[in-house]
Each structure stands twice: as structure tokens, then as C-alpha cells.
Design a protein that fits this description.
mainly alpha, 12 strands, zinc, metal-binding, about 210 residues
Length: about 210
């Protein structure tokens, strides 16, 4: 079972807030958030758990295949507005989130947050089977499979099996020859977003640097 951490304060922290008159307003906000996060949402298809109805709605699209958000510059489609915003930056090259320690830049704030743990040494996700600890829940899920060797996602067209649904979706493109990612500059198409990023960086950005 994957241990899930909720960023809620512990009882000693709340007690400290009670004793500190300067912390009255933060304490109220924290407790208000605790009251808000009451219901636990569980995915009927996998072991995903969250505390917000919108989060479970977005997650369920992984199972249904629904992708209501589409890029106006290429054929890319996705399940959330956040993913679309991150994708659109592959066309513009924009990376607004910057690490103050080393200059690392990213398109998503969550990527910067994870990166910052490299500097702080924080590893909030721990395996209950061994002493392994990591910075993200996805890394922990992949690690857990080492203990259980569970490959629940299988291809109906061949013997391919994997532990994560996105890997199966990526694999299926091999059978369909679908190439959903397209370069807005030259029309180059590919199966994976990483391939498109590499193409833009090595071909178009390299040309811009040379001309400059």
C-alpha cells in the first residue's frame, strides 16, 4: 500500500499555534482548510486517493481517455488545463519557475518544488516495506512495484505489460503509428512530447542561437 502524505500540521504544531498570539490568523486558516478537506475520494479503477472532487474528476480521465483540452498550435490533447499550459510552453520555450539556488528552470511550479528537495534533502514519501524514501508519490509508486512485481496494464495487441497506464498509452502508439505531437515551426511529428522537445531544442533553438 502506498503511503500518502497530507500536508496538514501535526498536533504539536497546532498546540504551538494556540500558545502564540501572533499566529491566530494562520491557525484559523489552517483549521478552516482541515474542515474543508473532509471527504476522501477513491478511484474505482486503481489505488489513487485524493481529497478534492476536481482532482478525482481529472484523474478519472486517465481511465476513460477523455481529453477535453487541446492545443491550438498542434494536435496535442490532454485531460487538464494545467497540462495544456505546460505543453504550450514547449512551443514558446517559456520556463517561468526558477530555482534561487542553482538557476534550474521549469515550466511547472510542481517541478520546481520537487527540484528544491534536492537542495533541502527532503524526502516526504516513504516505503512501508523498506527504508526507501523519495521526493514524489510517482517515484514511490514505481518503487513499490519492486516489492509486488505488479504489471496490471497489458496491451491487447501483443504481450506487452507495464505498471503505469501512461506507459501503455505510449506503447499503443507503436501499433497505430499515431504521432500526436507536431512541431509548429516545420510540421515534424512524433509519438512522445519528449521527442518534440528534443527536436525543437536541437534544431530550431540551435538555429536561433547561431543566427544571433
Amino acid at each position: 500500500m502506498v503511503r500518502k502524505l497530507r500536508n496538514e500540521p501535526s498536533l504539536p504544531v497546532l498546540a504551538a499555534l494556540d500558545e502564540d498570539p501572533l499566529a491566530k490568523e494562520p491557525k484559523k486558516r489552517i483549521r478552516k482548510r482541515q474542515k474543508t478537506i473532509k471527504k476522501e475520494y477513491r478511484c474505482p479503477e486503481c489505488d489513487y486517493i485524493c481529497w478534492y472532487s476536481n482532482s478525482i474528476k481529472i484523474h478519472m480521465r486517465r481511465h476513460t481517455g477523455e481529453k477535453p483540452y487541446s492545443c491550438s498550435l498542434c494536435d496535442y490533447k490532454c485531460s487538464s488545463s494545467g497540462n495544456l499550459k505546460a505543453h504550450q510552453s514547449t512551443h514558446t520555450g517559456e520556463k517561468p519557475y526558477i530555482c534561487t539556488y542553482c538557476g534550474f528552470v521549469s515550466r511547472k511550479s510542481v517541478h520546481l518544488k520537487t527540484h528544491m528537495m534536492l537542495h533541502t534533502g527532503e524526502k516526504p514519501f516513504e516505503c512501508i516495506e523498506c527504508e526507501y524514501a523519495c521526493t514524489t508519490s510517482s517515484h514511490l509508486k514505481r518503487h513499490i512495484m519492486i516489492h509486488y512485481d505488479t504489471k496490471r496494464y497489458s496491451c491487447s495487441l501483443c504481450k506487452y505489460k507495464c505498471i503505469e497506464p501512461y506507459k501503455l498509452r505510449r506503447h499503443l502508439l507503436v501499433h497505430t503509428d499515431e504521432k500526436p505531437h507536431m512541431c509548429a515551426t516545420c510540421g515534424y511529428r512524433c509519438r512522445q512530447s519528449d521527442q518534440l522537445k528534443t527536436h525543437i531544442k536541437n534544431l530550431h533553438m540551435a538555429k536561433e542561437d547561431f543566427s544571433a
